[in-house]
């Protein structure tokens, strides 16, 4: 994955000063977090359900090889074909070859995070195909030539006015088309309807794959997933290799918790369970619709690496986005600052896990470790623990500024030698009292100035607690 | 008080020791008034959390071993006026030293007898009414590590509910992070500062004249922000309010 030249800090600065983004983030993260809270509160068994969901994911990830094999067999039995891709390049190659060999010109896509990992659109476009995103949010991002900024709400960063202007420019929308949100969606719907009818290949993601039946489950709120996977003659489902659940019953558990955690809905508007391509008998279709061919591309792209590491638990993730909405850092900087397909707390673990820590070492640092992510995660992933683990790996790899290493080393020396420690702090107390105004310091030197850029810093007490204890109790 | 606990060991934390001794003194007053003997091992320094959170785990281990040694001479309950240092000792020591043949068992033993201050009062001693009388409109900020690390959801509020003379105020988003995050506040100060501003807006909107909580670290962050804004809202550790008579 490409790392841009603009630094993380520059993107953060930009996001923090983007008024419109701040408003959009405020509104949408509040709406999602409140929605989630209410939806779970209305479900008496919510906590037990989360435990159950976690057990299912933990069990699946622990036995991933077995369930992958079972799933692949089941897909083939229903008449679908399975392809294995170890890398993004392999996956792109597989999809491009499928499309080229079947003379595909027009591609429609429903939402797929893994396709963002692959940069599949560019690959297909380079082969002369037209690729249209059909999830409304993704479609808007595509029209704006921007990347999604939230894993479930791709254009969370945009306001209605932004979208109206975009539609005016790109879709020649009239004033009437832009009267209100229903009119705007009606316009997108008209445009996309045509795309569905023209398309020869539909590319979908996969929210869950069911090992026992070989089914792909897609949840959407717009019905575009259903059209993408039934209208074109060819359906290619892209699936991260960890997306499995063992049984239909397990799927039921996950579905109860996914929409509630993601948007606060009891269930998504459309839940599709796709088992095989359109059925035929004696060469004739016996089902009213469905694609002639179904291909499932199972993609590793770094996941095995995560599986074998201390970050394996992050593979339990069901991509609900709740941790993004709840994260105080995400709430401030939005998704683009992360510059990754996966943003927020989950992204800060998954991204270095998939692509290596070195280019992404700021992400695990971008957290207060407040634990809000862990609290809302439907499968209770201990994200803070993994951020800490990544920070320790960053130290081992020498990815920290020298001053930090040096000063913490010095601090450690003092901490384990109380006389040094107390002497050092007495000295610091004396200095800090000298420079403080009424007990507070306005400017700290060097790297510590970050603190006083935003708040005052207290001077050390003239007499520490231990000094007073010693004096008052004659010890 | 219905326990047979007679003595507690106080681990006061480096911040209380060096910056906010009043908080430590208030904790001692309260514990002694409850008839407990407070032991204060003078060699104590810092639990090592700053190094641990920054990823410097070897340094953190050295500090953890040191602190365990300091606390070893007694087996009394350890009381800490901080949810985050409590979380460090209760949860992270055990993990950090799990493979250390000399310290793994000790880390578990220390963890098992460590309590955050309000947790100790309410859950261990079963005390909520300290016969305190204070004044002012008080809002409570729930610090993250206490709240989500140690499950301090109700204890501080139960204690505050019993304080006579105060007017409790609701703090909007009281369970949201203040943006401190230890070295995060320095390394990513612009994000930390932005999170803090939201907290301060909520504090100012609450109508409180005093903000309280269980962690001086977050309170120091909030107080520094309020001062920078020129606000006159007071910031006090919960022990200082509970001690008032
Ligand atoms: S880590 Fe948990 S909360 Fe975050 S997206 Fe994944 S499942 Fe949802």
Describe the fold and architecture.
The complex is a heterodimer of chains A (475) and B (245). Chain A is of the alpha/beta class and 475 residues long. Among the domains of chain A are: 43-301, 3-Layer(aba) Sandwich (Rossmann fold), CATH 3.40.50; 402-473, no CATH class. Helices cover 51% and strands 12% of the residues of chain A. Chain A contains 22 helices and 14 strands. In chain A, strand 10 and strand 11 form a beta hairpin. In chain A, helix 2 (19-41) crosses helix 12, helix 3 (46-62) packs across helix 12 (248-262) and helix 19 (402-415) packs across helix 20 (418-435). The longest helix of chain A has 23 residues, at 19-41. The model of chain B has no long low-confidence stretch (mean pLDDT 96). Chain B folds into 2 domains: 7-123, no CATH class; 129-243, Rossmann fold. In chain B, strand 7, helix 12 and strand 8 form a beta-alpha-beta unit. The two termini of chain B are 20 Å apart. In chain B, the strands form 2 sheets. In chain B, strands 2-1-3-4 form a 4-stranded parallel β-sheet, sandwiched between helices. Chain B has a 4-stranded parallel β-sheet with strand order 6-5-7-8, with helices on both faces. Chain B contains 13 helices and 8 strands. With 245 residues, chain B is an alpha/beta fold. The chains are: A alpha/beta (475), B alpha/beta (245). Chains A and B meet through helix 1, helix 15, helix 17, helix 18 and helix 19 of A and helix 1, helix 2, helix 3, helix 4 and helix 8 of B. Iron/sulfur cluster binds at residues 317-323, 346, 376-379, 381 of chain A.
């Amino acid at each position: 994955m490409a790392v841009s030249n603009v630094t993380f800090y520059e993107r953060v600065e930009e996001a923090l000063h983007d008024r419109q983004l701040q408003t959009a983030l405020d509104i949408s993260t509040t709406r999602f977090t409140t929605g989630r809270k209410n939806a779970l509160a209305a479900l008496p068994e919510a906590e037990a359900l989360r435990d159950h969901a976690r057990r299912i994911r933990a069990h699946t990830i622990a036995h991933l090889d077995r369930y992958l094999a079972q799933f692949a067999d089941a897909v083939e039995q229903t008449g679908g074909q399975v392809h294995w891709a170890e890398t993004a390049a392999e996956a792109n190659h597989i999809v491009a070859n499928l499309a080229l060999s079947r003379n595909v010109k027009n591609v429609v896509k429903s939402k797929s995070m893994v396709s963002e990992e692959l940069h599949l659109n560019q690959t297909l476009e380079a082969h002369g195909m037209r690729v249209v995103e059909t999830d409304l949010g993704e479609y808007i991002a595509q029209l704006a030539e921007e990347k999604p900024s939230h894993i479930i709400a791709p254009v969370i960063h945009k306001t209605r006015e932004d979208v109206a202007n975009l539609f005016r420019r790109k879709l020649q929308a009239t004033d009437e088309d832009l009267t209100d949100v229903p009119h705007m969606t009606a316009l997108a719907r008209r445009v996309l309807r045509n795309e569905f009818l023209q398309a020869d290949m539909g590319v979908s993601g996969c929210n869950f794959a069911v090992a026992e039946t070989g089914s792909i489950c897609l949840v959407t709120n717009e019905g575009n997933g259903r059209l993408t996977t039934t209208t074109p003659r060819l359906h290619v489902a892209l699936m991260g290799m960890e997306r499995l659940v063992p049984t239909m019953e397990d799927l039921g558990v996950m579905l109860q918790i996914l929409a509630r955690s993601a948007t606060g809905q009891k269930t998504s508007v459309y839940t599709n369970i796709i088992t095989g391509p359109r059925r035929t008998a004696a060469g004739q279709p016996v089902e009213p619709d469905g694609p002639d061919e179904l291909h499932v591309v199972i993609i590793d792209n770094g996941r095995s690496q995560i599986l074998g590491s201390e970050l394996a638990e992050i593979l339990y993730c069901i991509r609900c986005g709740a941790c993004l909405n709840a994260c105080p850092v995400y709430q401030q900087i939005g998704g683009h600052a992360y510059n990754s397909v996966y943003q927020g707390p989950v992204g800060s673990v998954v991204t270095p896990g998939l692509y290596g820590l070195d280019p992404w070492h700021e992400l695990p640092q971008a957290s207060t470790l407040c634990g809000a992510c862990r609290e809302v995660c439907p499968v209770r992933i201990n994200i803070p623990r993994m951020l800490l683990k990544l920070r320790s790996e960053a130290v081992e790899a020498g990815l920290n500024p020298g001053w930090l290493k040096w000063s913490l080393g010095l601090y450690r020396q003092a901490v384990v030698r109380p006389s040094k420690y107390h002497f050092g702090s007495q000295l610091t107390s004396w200095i800090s009292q000298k420079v403080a105004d009424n007990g507070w310091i306005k400017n700290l030197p060097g790297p510590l100035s970050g603190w006083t850029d935003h708040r005052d810093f207290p001077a050390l007490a003239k007499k520490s607690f231990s000094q007073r204890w010693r004096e008052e109790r004659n010890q | 008080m219905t326990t047979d606990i007679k003595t507690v060991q106080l681990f006061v934390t480096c911040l209380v020791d060096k910056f906010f001794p009043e908080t430590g003194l208030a904790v001692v007053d309260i514990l002694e008034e409850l008839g407990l003997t407070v032991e204060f091992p003078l060699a104590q320094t810092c639990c090592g959390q700053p190094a641990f959170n920054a990823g410097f785990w070897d340094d953190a281990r050295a500090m953890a071993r040191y602190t365990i040694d300091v606390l070893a001479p007694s087996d009394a309950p350890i009381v800490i006026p901080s949810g985050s240092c409590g979380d460090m000792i209760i949860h992270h020591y055990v993990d950090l030293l799990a493979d250390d043949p000399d310290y793994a068992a000790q880390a578990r033993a220390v963890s098992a007898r460590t309590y955050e201050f309000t947790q100790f009062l309410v859950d261990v001693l079963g005390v909520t009414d300290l016969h305190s009388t204070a004044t002012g409109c008080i809002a409570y900020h729930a610090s993250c590590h206490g709240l989500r690390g140690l499950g301090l959801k109700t204890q501080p509020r139960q204690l505050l509910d019993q304080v006579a003379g105060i007017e409790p105020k609701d703090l909007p988003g009281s369970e949201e992070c203040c943006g401190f995050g230890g070295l995060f506040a320095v390394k990513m100060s612009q994000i930390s500062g932005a999170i803090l501003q939201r907290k301060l807006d909520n504090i100012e909107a609450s109508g409180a004249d005093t903000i309280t909580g269980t962690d001086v670290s977050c309170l120091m962050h909030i107080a520094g922000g309020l001062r920078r804004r020129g606000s006159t809202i007071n910031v006090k550790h919960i022990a200082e309010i509970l001690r008032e008579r």
